[in-house]
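hi!! sorry for the late reply, been swamped w classes. u asked for the two structures so here they r. pasted raw, havent cleaned anything up. first the sequence of the first protein and right below it the tokens
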Amino acid sequence: MRPGAALLLALALAPGCSSVNDYLHDRAMDAVDMVRVHLIVGNALGAEVQITQWIGLGFMYEEKAWAGGLATRHFGTWDESIRAWGLLIHNWKENVKGLPYYSGSYGWYQRDNQPSAKFYHRDGPIELWTIRASAAVIIGADAEVRLGEIFDFIVGIVGFDPAHDDK
């Protein structure tokens, strides 16, 4: 069997595919989701490395800084204020204007009536598996490799969508 015919047969048999155009669009968008990167200009200072949303080392402070780059499935510009710190346990407090969210706020908290700290985050488990590096002194950059989205892309080839972002 020719490779092209085998590929078309595989696409036709893939579950959850309403059409080849939707399938190809969803795979392309899943590929875009695997990386986020943007530049920062303004009131920004810090450096940090993050391994998943639970663990990080360093700090980032931004106050109404201009940001531009690849966000969730599009290029754009926005203003962001970030308060992030980590010494193993990581916390990221985000406020953006011009986007619904970039990464969303996440981290550990403990209230007076709780026996132990709890972890909170914006989206489902697919968002937890992120590797990030950020650095800024007035001008900076932030880059994320999103391991959960890489998994979503790979299993999306056969029609699964753990991120629930396909058409």
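now the second protein. again sequence first, tokens right under
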Amino acid sequence: MAISPDVEAYHQQLTESDRDLCELLAAEIDRALPEAENKVWHAHPVWFLGGNPIVGYHRLKKDVRLLFWSGQSFGEPGLADEGTFKAAEAHYGTVDDVDTEALARWLAKSRDIQWDYEHIRQTRGELQKRTEF
């Protein structure tokens, strides 16, 4: 699946260096998860598999944060726990900060290890492991 027009529009509002970084992340995500739908969700680019948010990124004051919704379960170095659920994050200042080999591993795991964020309201905030995608 190609990068959606709303994600492209998100990139266009960024500075050149941030745009380069986000376009690299988008290309790597799209290459690893070609079947994933991507869109701007809650003002940030996010990729979904079967309606479940998998990975996304957004510009913070000092860097770009890459977030994997189920990343705490990957057992991978380079990802820091984020929040009270199962999310994990990595931060990048420039294109040169991105370890594309690590990113490829994380993206491969993001397909196979998923917590069900799509139905979190129905489960009253209790995450359940997804078994079918």
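hope this helps!! also noticed smth abt the second:
The chain is about 30% helix and 25% strand.
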